[in-house]
Amino acid sequence: MIIEKLKREDLPKYKALIDDAFDGSQDMSSYLEYDENNDAYEIIVLKEKEEIVGSITMYKLKLFTFSFQPAIELFNVAVKSEYRRHNLGKILIEYVVDYAKENGYKSIHLTCLENEKPVHDFYENCGFKKAESRKYSMYL
Question: Which of 56, 73, 75, 116 is 20 to 30 A from 20 in CA distance terms?
């Protein structure tokens, strides 16, 4: 398997992974806004031959106000359904942890839906701890 940054030409394969992992997503036109040269975020994919079987998105928060910054915020941790339970998610998390350590980040954060107990267990097995905070959202 290969871990690499998502390339624009692989967007249809990436969308197929996200649709599989999350039971659907935005239409393809939204994916075409992807800029592989944007330094603020990276979409990392795990490939088996030419198929994208896993991904993780890192948003790099280079703030310095608090002791846990700079930080990485994770989104869209996804593994294709038939590849689950083969440690691919853990491989992706370990990739991010190594990246964070090598690049001076002090923490990694993510948000998970309250009712996703198996996913909570996965993150805790990867070393994450439940934060003592509450997430608020405003959808526009």
Answer: 73
